[in-house]
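User: Structure with S-adenosyl-L-homocysteine, tokens only please.
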Amino acid sequence: MTTRRSRGCLRWVHPWLWWALACLLTAGLAGCRAEDDSSQPPEQPPTGPTPEGPRQMMVRRQIRARGVKDKRVLAAMEKVPRHEFVPADQRPHAYEDRPLPIGERQTISQPYIVALMTELLELEEGDKVLEIGTGSGYQAAVLAELTPHVYTIEIIPSLAERAEETLRRLGYETVQVKAGDGYLGWPEHAPFDGIIVTCAPEEVPEALAEQLGEGGRMVIPVGPQWTHQTLYVLRKSRGRLRQKEVIPVRFVPMVHE
Ligand code: SAH
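Assistant:
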């Protein structure tokens, strides 16, 4: 009984075994054929919208959502690879909604603040702009997307050097970087159409006010150190500065040499 049952079972299994074997052989051959047959058209990439990248998401969620509208500024923020400007251990956080450490107890500003300050400068192509506080060089790269005439001063020489290297490596050839004291401005290249200060002085530095050209805009956080300051836009009209308060902000202090 046992033998017959097992034989019966074998008889029943056999066709399945053959079928499985045939399937394996066909799959193997089909695989080979697909690889070898160069007359087949290449596989098409999937159609439809391309998925949103981290920078596009940063612009949509952190910057446009908060009211920055200038298309050229938004395009610049989408283009500049922020992760290239932060230390390797900060790269996973490069597109987060916050400032990040860049060494020497300094920080790269929150993306929204970079975009807002750039928008407030109202730069036109060909404008000459001075940045005080180069830091990582990121803000300077964003400015360079809007005009080729960017001058930037950093008081910590090692940061100035590293920022210049990063900018050159990424092809921002025209940005002029200087290690020095921003309180003095850069008189050789004045007057400037825009001045952006990314560290906070307690008062507007006199040299910077002087080096702002007629009709020029200065975007600057002013206030006591290590606490909240106010972001201002100053506009020079007939030699006088008119100021407008924007928002409370928190920047590292603008130090004296
Ligand atoms: N804009 C930078 C971040 C600036 S952090 C970026 O995109 O990464 C502020 C920088 O201002 C720091 O690097 C600090 O060293 C610099 N700083 C402070 N006081 C300064 C001064 N008097 N002149 C020039 N730079 C100064």
